[in-house]
Amino acid sequence: MFPERSFFPMRSLWLLALMGAIGCGSSGKQPLAPLTGTVTYKGQPVVGASMTFIPENKSYRPAIAITDKQGRYRMETYEPGDGAGVGLGKISLSLRGPAKKIPPGVGDAVLEQMADVGDPLIPLKYFKPETSGLEYEVKPNTRNVFDITLLD
Description:
The structure is a single chain. This protein is an alpha+beta fold. It has a single domain (about 10-150), classed as Immunoglobulins (Immunoglobulin-like, Sandwich), CATH 2.60.40. The protein contains three helices and eleven strands, in the order αββββββββααβββ. The strands form three sheets. Strands 2, 3, 6, 10 and 11 form a five-stranded mixed β-sheet that branches. It is globular. Mean pLDDT is about 85; it is low at about 5-10 and about 15-25.
């Protein structure tokens, strides 16, 4: 149902991770625990979605993930698969189709920037943690599994 994707979402995902790293004021690493699960929409796995877990504790870094071919994800904060910050947090997901083409010779800067963005393939409410309705508490010393079913 969802096309395989290039590394387009990685650009915005890594930018968010970098911003989180800059904003992290503590010199030590935050407590982490594994956070995994599966994302589905209309009964199908969501493939290639960018995910971010934003901890309620603002001194913690956000965790990121990309869903695989089965819609599975594994959050990472500092290195692959290390998990998400312990505590309550909100999750956002984004998934867009192929980049739009602009007519040759248009030359409008706004249109050129929009050409890099495809149409949303999941409801827009999931793109922001404030509107996604996806909240999860990462518990220490346990394997946290949060399966997500997206609704219209």
